[in-house]
Design brief:
Elements: E1 2-4, E2 13-16, E3 19-29, E4 37-44, E5 50-56, E6 60-62, E7 67-76, E8 81-84, E9 91-94, H1 96-99, E10 111-117, E11 120-125, E12 129-137, E13 151-155, E14 160-163, E15 172-176, E16 181-185
Antiparallel strand pairs: 1-6, 2-3, 3-4, 4-5, 7-8, 7-10, 8-9, 10-11, 12-13, 12-15, 13-14, 15-16
Length: 188
């Protein structure tokens, strides 16, 4: 299935030269003058080699047809990360190299989308927003205004994020998994 390059997202699987690649990240560039482009970092599924490609944002890219289903995270052990399909109770093990940097976002029972090709997990898509708890943060400096400054904070899952000054330890916040940015205070 052909899609335009600017629609590619982290976790998508594309087909080039008869091989499958999983998108690690995709960035669209819109210069003031010239043609907008999409720069994509990918990992070849067959051997794990990382490659970078750049296309015009309107170029057609072949998106591979893979089976994508929602799975709930169960646990992690020496084999890898175990997920269960909620309707059929089928379990699938995602290896550490397929999981990659997404490991820090995993929470027990979390619904993720596992992409399989011929019943082998090849990519995983995390929820776009997750809720985490702040474990430590710097104290507020007098005179800082909420609109202009953010301060570094550490979350319960080991991520460093920038948060507004009014956020303190013990506060639950929502972060964007694409760029680890603060979205809002959790409503729970």
């Amino acid at each position: 299935m052909k899609v335009i390059a600017s629609s590619l997202r982290k976790g998508n699987v594309v087909e080039m030269d008869g091989k499958l690649y999983v998108v690690l990240n995709a960035v669209n560039f819109h210069p003031g003058k010239g043609t907008p482009t999409t720069s994509v970092d990918m990992r070849r599924i067959s051997d794990g080699v990382k490659v970078s490609e750049r296309w015009k944002t309107t170029d057609g890219v072949e998106k591979a047809t893979v089976d994508e289903r929602g799975y709930d995270f169960l646990y992690e052990d020496g084999e890898g990360f175990h997920f269960m399909e909620p309707e059929s109770y089928d379990q699938v093990v995602v290896t550490a190299d397929v999981m990659g940097d997404n490991k820090v976002y995993l929470q027990e029972g979390m619904r993720c989308f596992v992409k399989t090709f011929e019943n082998i997990p090849i990519a995983i898509e995390m929820p776009q927003k997750i809720t985490v708890e702040i474990t430590e943060t710097e104290p507020v400096v007098k005179g800082q205004t909420a609109s202009s400054s953010y301060k570094p904070a550490m979350t319960s899952n080991g991520l460093r994020v920038m948060v507004p000054p009014h956020i303190g330890p013990g506060t639950r916040i929502v972060i964007n998994t694409d760029d680890d940015s603060y979205v809002e205070r959790a409503k729970d």
